[in-house]
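=== RUN LOG ===
request id: a7f3
mode: sequence -> structure
chains: 1
length: 232
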Amino acid sequence: MLALADPDLDNGPRTEKSATVRMCAVSREVRPIDELIRFVVAPSGEVVADIKRKLPGRGLWISASRRAVAEAARRHQFSKGFKRDVRVAATLVADTEALLAKSVVDALAMAAKAGQVISGFGKVEDALTGRQGRSLVQALIHASDGAADGIRKLDALVLQNGANRGESSPIPILTALTSTELDLALGRANVIHAALLAGPASKTFLSRSQILVRYRSADDGKTAGTAARNSK
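=== RESULT ===
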């Protein structure tokens, strides 16, 4: 259990010595921090999501779920947890999702700057078939509003490559971002398909993508969805 005088609040921004688990203020379940979102009170007195876990002040942790955040607001859990009057915007659930999506876009941009992303149907197809001799693809990325035909063809390559290597689980297929968001992250227009290559920046992107998808799809108290799907 958590060795804290106040189980609802942490003692400040995350450090390397901080706990790796926290208690959800709504469900009262202890979970890994990667399954939770930290909230703090801004100087204005408004509750804000601390996506990167670096904002000053004591933090309240809520399961990474739209439903859990909405429930926390409905039950006045923020005022109870922070033990003070705080302002909770009516748009907190949507605002938190927007911040999560922005963190994923930022992480993808960093991965691209590090040379760990390629984009375009042809280049991604070449990477999946090994014709360019690139590093092993870590994930396949599609725009959520991309055309079904191209998505289906590249998904089939992922499944084929996994079967050829005897893998029980093919690489992740990520559909968390729109084409507009992919354009913004990669600095080019009309991005529908991309491939994530191995590297530290890629790990950050995958981690943030998982939290975003969990937030959108998880039911509090149930096993959350992963950050990707594998084509069937």
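=== NOTES ===
Confidence is low (pLDDT under 50) at residues 220-227.
The radius of gyration is 19 Å.
=== END ===
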